[in-house]
Amino acid sequence: MNKIIFIAGGGTGGHLFPAISIGSQLTKNNFSVIYIGSKYGIEKEYFKKNSFTYYLLNIRGLQRTLSFRSLFINILLPFRFIVSYLLSMKIIKKHNPSAIIGTGGYASAIPLIVGSHLKIPIIIQEQNSIPGMITKKLSKKASKIFLGFESSKQILNSNNCIYTGNPIRNNLKILNKNNSKKKLGFDVNKKLILIIGGSQGAHPINNHILNNITFYINNNYQLLWQCGNYDYKNIKNKINNKFIKIENFIDDMSLAYSSSDLVISRAGAIAISELTYFKKAMILIPLPNAANNHQKINAIYFEKQKACIRINQEKLCKGDLEKSINNILNNSELLKKLESNSNLLSNPNATTQIINETINLIL
Question: How far apart are CA 120 and CA 66, in angstroms?
Fold first, then answer.
């Protein structure tokens, strides 16, 4: 009988895709994988679409914005925690997994806590330079903690930490740039900028680019723009240009990454890890209200390695983004330097190392 491993995580692509990457490799090694996510995360549709074995908890993360809606969601959090704890206890006892792996997000916390209470080995994959609250709270109880940033070791100060880098999606492939541009309908002789504000888009970045769209048109730049569901209709209705392609979500990221000359992105750890794998020059705009300000810390780390240009969101109105774009794309030496330094920080074998360590732990 195959051993069963639970993988809990989601909410955003940054927590979901490492779970999928690890789960896919475990399946290839003859393990049965069961995923646990949230009813409110992007995993709900992803699991269904890909026919995974999964459970969804009625849990949401702590809301950090000030509004009546956020207050109401936060008031319900303790009740949702209790219900999700009891459901997690039930399904974990039912399947008796050999280990529970958490990849972050609000959906990962409760299964990890239940696992520790039931004396089941728990494993944490921590993507960010600043470990999250759950990683810190469970660091002494976890059998292994796989780190995306080596600097996190100093914060956790635990012997069970292993620096592996972050696992990226198994289906990502580096393709020929010009062929990728042609396949997407772009001009191979024009610079292409990929804009990714995260799996759900980034409203402030979207607004800024929309308000400055003439900059891109006047400078003959092409855009492949993942703007998320929230802004998609509004942006799509306002822009009609064959060199500006707007998507709510991009499924074929191999094609998107490979075609681009420059990438504008939030500073989520998984997005950055994928960009380093593709050897991309990047401008990172950290999410200001990310937990523990981890996106800013992620971006500062890469900035110090001269692997990105960092622009804080409040500086967008000062034209820093447009200046940086022109500076990079009109300076081939700087572009190549950013690409080279980015690639030096890639950890393409992260998933393999995580799988090997996990197997050694439970067998």
Answer: 38
Written as one string, the DSSP assignment of 240-278 is: --TTEEEES--S-HHHHHHH-SEEEE---HHHHHHHHHT
What stretches of 131-176 show up as alpha helix (H) in DSSP? 133-138, 152-156
147 and 251, same domain (yes or no): no
* Phi, psi torsion values for 345, nearest 5 degrees: -95, 5
**Phi/psi at 132 (5° precision):** -75, 170
- Are the CB atoms for 275 and 342 separated by under 8 Å? yes
Residue 167 near residue 354, CB atoms below 8 Å = yes
User: How much is the average pLDDT of 105-125?
Assistant: 95
Domain count, the chain: 2
Q: What is the mean pLDDT of the chain?
A: 92
Task: Indicate the burial class of 330 (C-beta count within 10 angstroms; 0-12, 13-18, 19 or more).
Answer: exposed
CB 309 within 8 A of CB 338: yes
Which sign does the torsion angle of CA 344, 249, 351, 175 carry? negative
Q: Mean pLDDT, to the nearest integer, of 278-303?
A: 93
Counting every residue, how long is the chain?
Answer: 363
Average pLDDT rounded to a whole number, residues 343-356: 95
Where do we find the tokens 């620096």?
163
Domain that holds residue 70: 4-167+348-362
Q: Identify the CATH number of the domain in which residue 21 sits.
A: 3.40.50.2000
pLDDT tens digits, one per residue of 162-209? 999 999 998 999 999 999 999 999 999 999 999 998 666 689 999 999
What is the mean predicted confidence (pLDDT) over 240-256? 95
Token representation of residue 122:
């728990």
Instruction: Pinpoint the alpha helices (H) of the chain.
Output: 13-28, 43-49, 68-95, 106-117, 133-138, 152-156, 177-184, 203-211, 213-218, 228-238, 253-259, 269-277, 294-304, 320-329, 332-344, 350-362
Phi, then psi, of 37 in degrees rounded to 5:
-135, -160
- The residue type found at 113 is I
